[in-house]
Amino acid sequence: MKIKAIIVDDESHARSFLKKLCNRYYEDKIEIVDECNSVAAALVSIKKNAPNLVFLDIQMPDENGFELLTHFESIPFEVIFTTAHKEYAI
């Protein structure tokens, strides 16, 4: 069974690159079911697609990735944070 995932990032090139990586190296394990450019779009997609995994950008214009998680009493998916900003990187 494949992991259903969505990618949430405001930058289209970042979404595209991550999708290409998943398709190239994990095609038999991960299915990207949607790509979202905002928290609002992600909320709709999560409700519609019930993903197992969300690749979540931290820094976005309207709401950041952390704010997406506040919309859930219990988070029904795993999260991998993605960012191009070194202040968020470990």
Task: Write a brief structural summary.
The protein is of the alpha/beta class and 90 residues long. It has helices at 12-25, 39-49, 65-69; strands at 3-8, 30-36, 53-57, 78-82.
What does this protein structure show overall?
The chain has 90 residues and is of the alpha/beta class. It has helices spanning 12-25, 39-49, 65-69; strands at residues 3-8, 30-36, 53-57, 78-82. 22% of the residues are buried.
Cα-based radius of gyration, to the nearest Å: 12 Å
Q: How many DSSP helices? A: 3
Average pLDDT? 93
Oligomer: single chain
Measured as a percent range, the helix fraction is: 25-40%
What letter string, H or E per element, gives the SSE order? EHEHEHE
Helix and strand content put the structural class at alpha/beta
Fraction of residues in β-strands: 25-35%
Largest sheet: 4 strands, parallel
Principal-axis shape equals globular
Record the strand order, biggest sheet.
2-1-3-4
Distance separating the two termini: 31 Å
Low confidence ranges = none
* Number of extended strands: 4
Topology:
Blueprint: E1 3-8, H1 12-25, E2 30-36, H2 39-49, E3 53-57, H3 65-69, E4 78-82
Parallel strand pairs: 1-2, 1-3, 3-4
